Amino acid sequence: MDSATMAAMAIEQGFDLYAITFDYGQRHRLELDSARSVAKQLGVKEHRCITLDLRQFGGSSLTSDDSVPVGRTPDQMNDGIPSTYVPARNTIFLSFAVAWAELLGAEDIFIGVNSLDHAGYPDCRPEYIEAYEKMARLATKSGVEGNDLHLRTPLIRMTKTQIVARGLELGIDFALTNTCYDPAPSGDACGTCDACVLRQQAFLDNAMQDPRPYASV
Q1: 151: part of which helix (H) or strand (E)?
Q2: Of all residues in the chain, what percent carry a pLDDT higher than 70?
Q3: Per-residue confidence (pLDDT) for residue 117, from 0 to 100
Q4: Mean predicted confidence (pLDDT) in 73-101
Q5: Percent of the chain clearing pLDDT 90 (strictly above)
Q6: Does position 195 have pLDDT exceeding 90, yes or no?
Q7: Dihedral Cα 53, 174, 81, 92, nearest 10 deg
Q8: Which of the chain's ends, N or C, has fewer CB atoms near its CB within 10 Å?
């Protein structure tokens, strides 16, 4: 949901999109099909799916057999770092994005991180993005030659409600998107994990029903 809205915002600003999706061993692999559908809807220039296996390390309920948290309130979600945090995930993802951007001659990388609804994720904070951007400029040939790389985070201070509203304005078909951390084999969202709770509330705040099917609500 976040990435689809962010991508549409980038297109609105006149950017040509080269999109990356990561198959990192996540339990919610349904998002891979969702990403392909969204990329097709948006007409991105190129879409690549990068495979890497973070289940080798585990350390997260998204890359292990541990249960994901369910039935939590927003306050509980923001109390500490959740088990759905994948160690260094955004650092790993951004490393691939920086490498491809340098080869493409691109100076702007968009990432759909959001710091308001999930304050517990350390790699979604503005200070992390600022530090990574500085590192990327120091660590690349293009940066050394004076072509500064910019990390664009248009959603970082938006609420989920605002993200849904913006996506609707831009014509995003949210039925194509998947947010659930633990979807059923049928593809139905669980309705009770943190991501589902926040998503459903965002649609209610926008006076509409989430177009994704749910196994339980």
Answers
A1: strand 150-152
A2: 98
A3: 58
A4: 92
A5: 85
A6: yes
A7: 30
A8: C
Domains and CATH numbers, the chain: 2-205 (3.40.50.620)
Q: What token pair was written down for 5? A: 């809205």
Rounded-to-integer distance, Cα 49 and Cα 195, Å: 22
Q: How confident is the model at residue 77 (pLDDT cuts 50, 70, 90)?
A: confident
As beta bridge partners, residue 21 has: 49
Output the six-digit token pair for 93: 């993802």
- Partnered with residue 49 across adjacent β-strands are 21
d(CA 98, CA 191): 35
For residue 216, what pLDDT band results from cuts at 50, 70 and 90? low
Residue 196, token pair as written in the block: 């589902």
**How is residue 140 annotated by DSSP?**
S
Beta bridge partners of 70: 193
Give CA–CA dist 90/203, Å, rounded.
26
Q: Angle of helix 160-169 relative to helix 2-12, nearest 10 degrees?
A: 50
Site of tokens 């959001």 = 114
What is the residue whose two structure tokens read 């926040």?
A: 198
Mean per-residue pLDDT, 18-45: 95
Q: Are 167 and 125 in contact (CB under 8 A)?
A: no
